[in-house]
Amino acid sequence: MTYISQTIATPRSNPSLLQRLSQAYGLWHQRQALRRLDDAALRDIGVSRAQAEAEARRPVWDKPLY
């Protein structure tokens, strides 16, 4: 016998202020780490120095939509 599982999408709840601040800090921290990579590491991930600097300068509220 085969069972079929169905996933129902539930609406996302709004994150708390603490969660949003934590996410913003994490994003800022990642962008600063990208800025600190040397040119060899940036080449390894396919990012130019100019792209890394541009990403690091983006404000934390300018975040990707996951």
Helix content: 40-55%
Head-to-tail CA distance between termini: 37 Å
Uncertain segments? none
Major sheet description: none
Please provide the count of β strands. Answer: 0
β-sheet strand percentage: under 5%
What would the average pLDDT be, to the nearest integer?
Answer: 88
Indicate the structural class. mainly alpha
Number of helices: 3
Q: What is the overall shape? A: flat
From N to C, what is the helix and strand string? HHH
Alpha-carbon Rg, integer: 18 Å
Pfam families: YjiS-like
InterPro entries: YjiS-like (IPR009506)
Protein name: DUF1127 domain-containing protein
Description of the molecule:
- With 66 residues, this protein is mostly helical.
- It has a domain at 17-57.
- The protein has helices at 17-36, 39-45, 49-57.
- α1 packs antiparallel against α3.
- The radius of gyration is 18 Å and the shape is flat.
- It starts with 16 loop residues before the first helix and ends in a 9-residue tail after the last helix.
